[in-house]
Amino acid sequence: MTDWNPHLRSAFDEPYWAELQSFVAAERSAHEVYPPQNEVFAALHLTAYADTKVMILGQDPYHGAGQAHGLCFSVRHGIRIPPSLVNIHKELHSDTGLAIPNHGNLETWADQGVLLLNATLTVRAGQAASHQKHGWETFTDQVIRVVNEKQDPVVFILWGNTARRKQSLIDTDRHAIIESTHPSPLSAHNGFFGSRPFTRTNRTLLEWGREPIEWDLAAATNQVAPRDSKLEGDHL
């Protein structure tokens, strides 16, 4: 159990939760589903509620074999870096001057209090958005709400239209929002490149008297074992 459980346990009694579990179980019995079952809630296991000071909201898990491991935009060491993450690396270098890493693993960000949450937490192999509108968004909206309820301010990084639509769940009098187009090759040149989300985030954290994020990924070579994160709520 993690410290998220007291904040989210009410969701597990809602009718949609049982329906969502049944849907995902049926999908796993008939199709390949990503990420693996023990990594579905990796974002909530790697970043404690108490430690969350930045939230990056993604849309869908990667739907290619071996890519999704429960953190938005991230892939494990040894997995080819997807195009959106290539662009995130480019902006990271342009914004901070840090070296572009040779991997796509973002776990070191998660370990520092960056919650890397997708709006939808599972997907059928090879079929983007196949698990949208089956209940995950109701659950992840609740995650956003409980982060919004934190007394300590949080920086919300919203890339793309799906994430930007969540602004209504965030109290901008207490928290900060940094937004732009999505880092996808289809939209990165229309506002993501040059948006400087990493230095803007750290500047905001410092203004609040909080420790900045060490965004450097080039030195991050350690691999973290997957957490047990089965669908049942009492595993959170």
Structure report:
By secondary structure, the protein is an alpha/beta fold. It is built from 8 helices and 6 strands; from the N terminus they run ααβαβααββαβαβα. α7 links the parallel β5 and β6 (176-180). 38% of the residues are buried. Mean pLDDT is 94; it is low at 222-234.
- Helix percentage: 25-40%
The run of helices and strands is: HHEHEHHEEHEHEH
Kindly state the mean pLDDT as a whole number? 94
Please give the order of strands in the largest beta sheet: 3-2-5-6
What is the number of E strands? 6
Measured by DSSP, the beta-strand proportion falls in 5-15%
Structural class: alpha/beta
General form: globular
Low-confidence stretches: 222-234
Q: Round the Cα radius of gyration to an integer and report it.
A: 17 Å
- Our count of helices gives 8
**Span between termini:** 5 Å
Give the biggest sheet: 4 strands, parallel
Supply database-style keywords:
4-stranded parallel beta sheet; alpha/beta; two-stranded antiparallel sheet; disordered C terminus
List the helices and strands and how they pair.
Blueprint: H1 5-8, H2 15-30, E1 33-34, H3 42-46, E2 54-58, H4 83-96, H5 107-111, E3 114-118, E4 123-124, H6 136-148, E5 155-159, H7 161-164, E6 176-180, H8 197-207
